[in-house]
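Known limitations

Files may contain more than one protein. Parsers should not assume a single record per file. Below, a two-record file is shown to illustrate correct handling: read the sequence, read the token line, then continue until end of file.
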Amino acid sequence: FGCTLSQATVLAACQQSAQALAPVIEYITRALQKSRVLHNDETGFRVEKKRWWLHVACTLWYTLYLAHPKRATVATDAMDILPGYQGISVHDTLALYLHYPCVHALCVVHYLRELTWAHEQFDQHWATQMKILLRTIHLHVEQTREAGKRSLPEQDQQEYRRRYQELVRIGLAANPPPTERTGKRGAIKKGDVLNLLLRMQQHQDLILRFMTNFEVPFTNNQAETDLRMMKLRQKISGCFRSVEGSATFCTLRSYLSTMR
């Protein structure tokens, strides 16, 4: 309309909107607490020239953001969703999520990326076979779901687990733990490929959760998608100059993402 708004006017509008949205944010929080499947993720975030963390808890229908100085359970506790949550939390293998006693499912695409890296950088042939296996299981799950069924035949599940465990054993045999210490103190450092194998061995049930429960997605793409817009905003506009500004923005974006 040819009129100009001052920065103070825009700031006041954002603050008033965030205050008005308090009941909506509470509703979103309660809805996420009761959801059967929940996505969790976090990414770096700049506030007052310091590195903070932007945490997200979301489903297909609801989104909740929180800017926090810590990438730890103190942040996820502050969101007040994972404490006491009784559904399935989908995330990467970050230890702060595994701290909670709910059912966990790991993003398989994260492991596909690591398997690609293991094959390309260290010529790990077992990694390629593991990628093929995981994608085969995913295709079988999708075909079974489209056929109107709720689970894979138990015989097929057992065969997939057997092949998974065999590939992990092959990988462990090709990557024995080191016996020589590289430093003067601490435990002997394991290689990156060995650490990947040990995680895949330890978290087999969490990685294959999508196979045993069709409610669990193959990826954590929902959380990554909800974080992408926030990262784009930061690339365009820069960091937040105040804690209050970051909190206001998280409130507004939680509402807008949910309504969208």
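...continuing to the second record:
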Amino acid sequence: MVSTYLSYDLINRDIRGNLERISTSQQVARERAYYDEKIGTITKLDDFLNDYRLYSYAMKAHGLEDMTYAKAFMKKVLESDLSDENSFANKLTDQRYRQFATAFQFSSGTAITQTGRQMDTVIDKFKDMIDDEATSVAAETAYYKSKIGSVTSVEQLLNDQRLRDYVLKAFDMDTKYWSRDHITQVLTSDLNDPASYVNTTTASNKATLQQLAAHFNFNASGTLDGDVVQDAAQTDEVVGAYMFYVPSRMVPAEADANKAYYEGKIGSVANVDDLVNDSRMLSFIKTAFGLEDITLKSTIKNILTSDLTDPNNYATTMGGETYEALTRAFGFNTDGTLSGATAQT
């Protein structure tokens, strides 16, 4: 049997090998290219703040993504005269704001927003943040997978801060102001009993709490209701939920989880609607073909059901080679049914 530590080490070695790939992935590369192209055209602070892709890229680079919503506050930061010790940015205790202001020249009266060196600094910081986030997500996921199988009670789960925070984040719940009694009652509820705590709670996130209870196998006393706290499917679903809520960008562990989901589902697709109505599958193929900007399912459906032998087909006339490549990757008839035994060889 492979030891837990060895499994953890193998996972992390594989993830470390993927970090450079994710740093230069299409998604990150597109954001960098957009930043490179647009930042030199910005001459007014308001134009910078109103271009969400530029602004959020810079905020992420400086570890300030949680403050992206606070445009009025950040405007004061960027307008600060850093040579004045009483300026807004200089009076803030968090040095990240001063560093952010230093990365731009909105208060200097110059005609350019950033020098080449400043631009490179922001881009390098963004890459570092992506790498750090990928490492953190991978480490927490590896820890969860290595430890969850040994949990035998609700108390043990909640006493392990890393396991507890992983679960709370996976279900988009507050990790600072959680209630032990509340979560314990949720996890020990019988979903089949209409009068159980989780079924009668008036909490606004009742449906989420019911999902939380459904992903663990505890009885009313807080011990195991069976042999394991989670089966493999339950663990995979919790990990998948964590990957959805926690990373701000695609990271290797999330990509691996999405790949596994796709491979597990594609064989059961019986028609084009099965594919496009599964949001996770749809997102996977859109990312694979660089079509993330397409928001309508009907567009993807039209591409997948195009008849490439007809020169006037949808894929050819509306998107050309990229759309045609997506069409060829699947085997659907124009009515959405399968042209062969499966949607894909």
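Parsers that stop after the first record will miss the second one. For reference, the second record is described as follows. Residues 1-24, 109-114 have pLDDT under 50 and may be disordered.
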